[in-house]
Amino acid sequence: MSKITLVTGASRGLGRNTALSIARRGGDVILTYQSRSAEAEAVVAEIQALGRMAAAFQLDSGDVSGFAPFAERLRKALRETWGRQSFDHLVNNAGHGDYALISDTTEAQFDGLMNVHFKGVYFLTQALLPLIADGGRIVNLSSGLTRVSYPGYAAYAAMKGAVEVLSVYMAKELGARGIAVNTVAPGAIETDFGGGAVRDNPEINKIFAEMTALGRAGLPDDIGPMIASLLSEDNRWINAQRIEVSGGQAI
Fold first, then answer.
1. Which candidate, 184, 22, 164, places its Cα nearest to that of 93?
2. Confidence (pTM)
3. If we measure between CA atoms, which residue out of 134, 127, 119, 129 comes closest to residue 62?
4. Is 30 exposed, middle or buried, given 0-12, 13-18 or 19+ CB atoms closer than 10 A?
5. Catalytic amino acids?
6. pLDDT tens-place string over residues 76-120
7. Are 138 and 166 in contact (CB under 8 A)?
8. Does residue 60 come out as left (phi exceeding 0), alpha (psi in the -120 to 50 range) or beta?
9. Which residues contact 126 (CB under 8 A, 6 or more apart)?
10. 196 pLDDT exceeds 80?
11. What confidence score (pLDDT) does residue 202 get?
């Protein structure tokens, strides 16, 4: 029986790459999107073209009130499409970039980052725990910015730091169910995240390339396949770890 993975925020960027990487390894994928329905359906079509099953659901990862209804929609889809009562893997990937110096950060910016990157991860996982199969996996996305500071990223990095601590507690509390929980922390990646700064601004790209041992900024293909591999049985004994995938950034 194929494994089913739920990837949040998978209509673009690292989420899209992760979803496709999982499908290439023989897994089925359920993905969420906030507003890009056409792009999400395009990812579903790509997964289906690989011979795997897929579905897409709208979800605002920063709105806790929507998590219970989403869980019910998911339960129905699992039953009607897969003939199952559970899914195997959860990848908490959804996120956004909002950057400002500590002196300039507004409460709205802070709350927006917290609601999506920390509170959303906490309570979405809580809502989905009854649907995650025993022996499953959870991967929470963090950032290389929890290890290396860069001006303007304080609030964003703080939320990711909270997720790293949360992942350890999840691993402890869910261990009795055989569920492994890890954090993946990408370095600077060329996507449209944060307005596409690393991808589209040559000066910013050069800065990160020069601080990386392998001499370039990362690509989505450096991250998605790694997450897909982490979810496999080959890595079943990896648990409660922060795994940085950065090419050796700032070492």
1. 184
2. 0.95
3. 119
4. buried
5. 156
6. 999 999 999 999 999 999 999 899 999 999 999 999 999 999 999
7. no
8. beta
9. 67
10. no
11. 83
Q: Are 184 and 245 in contact (CB under 8 A)?
A: yes
Rounded Cα gap, residues 29 and 47, in angstroms: 8
Do 209 and 29 form a contact (C-beta atoms < 8 A)?
A: no
Q: With contact defined as beta carbons under 8 Å apart, do 141 and 18 qualify?
A: no
Q: In this structure, which amino acid lies at residue 22?
A: I
> Domains in the chain, ordered, with CATH?
4-245 (3.40.50.720)
Size of the chain, expressed as the number of residues it contains = 251
Contact (CB, 8 A) for 31 and 52: no
Tell me the per-residue pLDDT of 120-140, one tens digit each, with 9 for 90 and over: 999 999 999 999 999 999 999
Q: What percent of the chain has pLDDT over 70?
A: 100
Residue 201 falls in which region: left (phi positive, over 0), alpha (psi -120 to 50) or beta: beta
